[in-house]
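User: Structure tokens for this complex, please. No commentary.
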Amino acid sequence: MILLSRAEETVLLAILGLGDDAYGVSILEYIQEKTGFEWSLAQTYDPLKKLVKKGYVTKTKGDPTPERGGRAKSHYRLTTQGRQALVEIRRVQDCLWTAVPKGALAR
Amino acid sequence: MTGRRDVPHAAPPKLGMRLLGRLLPEEERSETKGDLEERFQLKVQEGHAAGARIWFWFQILHLVLYLGKDRILWSCIMFKSNLIIAWRNVKKSKACSLINIAGLAIGLACFLAIFLYVRFEKSYDNYHKEGDRVYRVATIVSSLNMPGNRNRFANISAPAAPTIKENFPQVDQAARFYFRGRVLVRSKEKTFYESNFLYADQALFNILTIPVVKGNVDHLIDRPGTLAITEGIAKKYFGNEDPVGKTINADNSDFEITGVIKDPPRNTHVKYNFIASLEIEAGAKENWRVTNYYTYLKVNRKIDVKNFEDSINSFLKGSPGKLKNDWTYFLQPLRDIHLHSDLLYEVEPPGNPAYLNIFSLIGAFILLIASVNFVNLTTARASSRAKEVGLRKVIGAQKRQLIKQFLGESLILSVLATAIAFVLVSVLLPYLSRLTGVKFELTDLFNLPIMAFVLALTGLVGLGAGFYPALVLSGFSPILVFKGVLRAGGGKAALRKSLVVVQFAVAVVMIISTLLVYSQLNFMKNANLGFDKEQKLVVPARLSTNNYESIKNEFLSHHAVKGATASSTYPGRGDATWGVSLRGKDFSGIVFNVTTVDYDFLPEYQLKIAVGEGFTKGTSGSAAGACLINETGARVLGFDLPERALGSTLRGGGQDHRIIGVLKDFHYRGLQEKIDPLMFFLPEAKNAYLSVLTLTLETKNLQDTLKFVENKWKELKLGPIFSYRFLDEDFNRLYRTEETVAKIFGTFTALGLLIAFLGLFGLALLTTEKRTKEIGIRKVLGATVSSIFVLLTRDFIRLVAVGIMIAFPIAYFAMHRWLQNFAYRTAIGWLPFAGAAAAALALSLLTVSFQALKSAAANPADSIRYE
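Assistant:
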């Protein structure tokens, strides 16, 4: 079973959702938009670094833009392993959720 | 996501960006900065400039925390491990560690104690609101040609304050007070002699900060006959009752109490118990001749003191009848009065800045000695840790890390020592108070500035003393260590040796100084003063000139009272002074100390006449208008031989005085001061009073005699409260400052020595331990116990001897300078030097020989098996 921390899982999903346009700020904004939680940059970098290390994500240098003070973006893209990981995580989650008896949460 | 609205670019705070640039690893730098800037831009464009900044700094903080997470975690782990290692090292050589910590603790405690005292002395009058704008006006009398500050007076004329305030717009407030050191105060039930009684202008409350507890600050003493008392006095006379509105009697006049003020703090030169309204008689209001008033000004802007002094002087001298031509006023900043003003008639004896410097130096010396111990013992023990260092290096420790580790260890030790020092000082605080005469409380020690200072000091000592050992320890080469080359000695001992020399040089200087301070003190106490101060009882008494002879006879009726004499003052007590001039010569005012004495004064005090005659009852020479002067007086008046002074007439105090005799000089003041001109005369007016009765007593059954004197005194109603003192004790009180200095010197020298010998002991312990095997082999080869003893002690004694050699000239010059403070001084003999040298050598021999004998006498079979 593939074990990821919630932070890593969240970031991984955000990259998946963003497709080709995943980089630091966009990931941050995506998470905020979809979940309502505002993360700090440090909070996204930490899981990103770990994901790169584990091989779920690749990091490539992009083009510099003026609003970044002329600095290049780092684009993140899912690898095949990353996709597989997400699939597996989802499967495990689904299985577990369906096994929960109805109304157990409500108690 | 490009192509956002075209709004001017807002750059995020530069400082934060630069900080990030420093902290982040290079590969992440541009990405992080870029993301930060982009997001920041967006926030600004959305119109939250302030919010964007807060967000920005929050991001930085978060990034730094995430970045440092691992490092912090690891340094905690390493810290814990290093702590354990340090503790094991402390335990491994208990004696050494104990000496190290105890020495440092004692050193720090001494330093702290001295720091407390010096800080207190320097804090005088620092609490007054806007005190930097307050000045005291004082006078120089240029026609008085006196050495030192003896022509400068702290108090001035009554009209000066109002005149200056009226004519100089830069003066906001001006106030005077008249100070009484001893006043008889009576309430309904209680009567005491009280000190520190001020008669002052209301404006004094606007110049000095005197917190008022009860009463109206603005109208406390502005009516005649009103008085403010301190809380302490209120409690003493009225208990828990409200004193305001009550009446109290001081010096036979009634005062209405209009307010209660806080007791004066310890650090003010004007100590007050009572502040009464100042009333100056109409006739005296324009009297510029009488100078009884301490005068303070508060200016309303920054002034050029020199200019202001000049304009005051030229203004006051410009109009006739004001400031005399040879008088010049000068201003003293309020805060300088305690330490930097030593004038005649100060309100309170001033502090001595030179002594503060000396004490600071002693404190620094002791700390130095303790730090040297630390350095020496740590480096001497370095070899025992060589293997540890070697192993750490093999595993991959960098030199920097090792230095950090060892510095950390010395910091921990110094923190420990500081904690002990704090405990020591707080326990010994009462002793410090007794030693210095300043009442210290725990709050003086446990307050923020002191704590901060001590913390800084701890760091400084820990790092300073730990630096060299850390360098030595971390410098070991692992290869040499494991080959076993680096075992004995621990490298060069040159630094260690020179540090021991420095240590003992300092210690010996301190011993010699202490001995010389005590010898000067003894010299002053036992010097032949030129009069008899033994077995004299001095009793303040109100003796009318009409009947004092019969009063004396009443006392003489007791068999133990051998003699009695009445006078206006007694030796050691202040005298009245007159400006005196010689009839027929153009001398304007030579200051004479004047004393009224009766016929028995000279024989009772055993004063010698140089030429002429003394006062004898019934002779024509001793008729009205006769006077005696001392030899110095004759010389200052311009007579090359005392004989020539006989028959001359002196004008002083509004009367003529014919010189009938010249007294041999005697020391009527402490030996710090030169003998000044002195003049004696008989009580002339009827219905006048003499204030001192001196009785010569037999020492047998002293208690009974004292009882008799007291009863007789009360029976004759010679005053409201009976008090007495013994002349010799009272006179020796003049040397209280020197006594304090001697005690402080003695105490701290002893402590400094203790630390130095502790260090020597530790060093001897370590070096003999290291030579255990050598000694065993020497013994096997036939060395005797005594030859080994010599071998082991020789090195140390040599170092101490060099230290002594260095100390001699330093001590000589330092003490020579110190002795210049005294007009009459002891010679610097060889005895203190020889004594100090002998003491240092003997004590160090004793310290070292304990170890040396032990290892010299050890069984060689055990010694060789060592290690």
